[in-house]
Amino acid sequence: MTTSVVHCPALFLTAPASNQGKTTITAALARYFTNKGKVVRVFKTSTDYLDPQILAQASKQPVEQLDIWMAGEDYCQDKLYQAAQIADLILIEGAMGMFDGEPSSADLAARFGIPMAIVMDVKGMAQTAAAVATGLANFRDDVQVAGLIANRCGSERHAELIRDALPASLPLLATLKRDDEITLPERHLGLVQADEVKDELEIRFEAAVEWLQKTQDTGLLSLPNAVPFYSANQVDAEQTIEQHLLGKTIAVAKDAAFSFIYDANLIALKSLGAELVFFSPLHDQALPKADALWLPGGYPELHSKTLSENTAMRQAIQDFYQAGKGILAECGGMLYSLETLTDLEENEYPMLGILAGQGAMRGKRGCQGMQTAVTPQGDIRGHAHHRSRSANTPVPVGYGRRQRHPAPGEAIYQQKGLTASYLHLFFPSNLDATAKLFLANSQD
């Protein structure tokens, strides 16, 4: 039952498919309105670590995930409600295509009454772009579509052909020419991490603002209509969360090798009473004083030589493990926990060796998808996204339960205080189970 309402302009950026320019345009809009003195809160749908880093830099505000399956409707509702209390504009960037996934971007937009703008790469088509956009807009009655953003539009004549073919109910919000100066750099699992190219991104953001201002159609350059956002009473519920980690310090690995960290997970740990300290397995020689350790995902394969050569840190984590303290190792963190890691150039390096087995990168083939981690401590929702394999690992204590397939998901390993898996966990989905992982409930 809802108790209060806040109104805030909001827009949901979606597309017919991936690689249409959603992140570039969302970042451009965020920086455009931020430069005008507006507070812009951006959310990213589904499971993504890299886009939020870029969107946070563009908006100069924190960026969190919204996913009905992973977090629940009440969680998403309250995140929007809390943002609406401080923001002048809420932007949401969708994932994949408009109706892809269960739930989809359209499901989220429909649930909270947020109008959608369709971002489409229109290179190589004109009236067909209008036909596709019209089909998307009319596919479901419960989805509001504010208009079309024509990306990579070649000329004003190109834009005119699209504009004239659109129905009056579906305006052309912007026509944006291809511009390599604002295209965001990529790597094998997605966009490059924002911290690696911070100065370059600033240049691209400001170029993107100029790019937006040159559009012949100016529907994006004013704030969209306000949307009512309601409390789901989660704010009061959060005040009664049992602080299972009160008095505990959790050391979180965070550097260029380990950066796949949901802000929501950090907030969740703090809500459980934990104090967080950060360290770098790449550069630090010792662990900070802590009761538990979190090795999140990232790109250890790009830094495997440096990680292997930091023998002081490897020894410190090995000692931490031998002491039976809680360690959560997710995906890249699990690869770091294995005995060796072979990178994309077939170079093999020694890793921590706190979990038996060898890890190796495997080019473009990989595994991804939503899964529930079924652990002795409880079920925690999350996802898999990796292009590596592991071999000769111990017998798992459980497996991920796939969202839409009966086959077992990712293996979950536990020994001493270590929990390791390819799965990236979303802590707010089960705070009690998350706390138990860090409290080192040994399975030995």
List the helices and strands and how they pair.
Blueprint: E1 5-14, H1 22-35, E2 40-45, H2 50-59, E3 64-66, H3 68-71, H4 73-84, E4 89-93, H5 105-112, E5 116-121, H6 127-137, E6 145-151, H7 156-165, E7 172-176, E8 186-187, E9 190-191, H8 198-213, E10 226-230, H9 234-238, E11 249-253, E12 258-260, H10 263-271, E13 275-279, E14 292-295, E15 297-298, H11 304-309, H12 311-322, E16 326-330, H13 332-337, E17 340-342, E18 348-350, E19 358-361, E20 367-375, E21 378-386, E22 388-391, E23 398-402, E24 408-415, E25 418-421, E26 424-425, H14 431-438
Parallel strand pairs: 1-4, 1-5, 2-3, 2-4, 5-6, 6-7, 11-13, 11-14, 14-16, 16-25, 17-19
Antiparallel strand pairs: 1-10, 8-9, 12-15, 17-18, 19-22, 20-21, 20-23, 21-26, 23-24, 24-25
Helix pairs in contact: 1-2, 1-8, 6-7
Keywords:
14 helices, GATase_3, globular, single chain, ATP-binding, cobalamin biosynthesis, glutamine amidotransferase, alpha/beta, 10-stranded mixed sheet, CobQ/CobB/MinD/ParA_Nub-bd_dom, 8-stranded mixed sheet, 30% helix, 26 strands
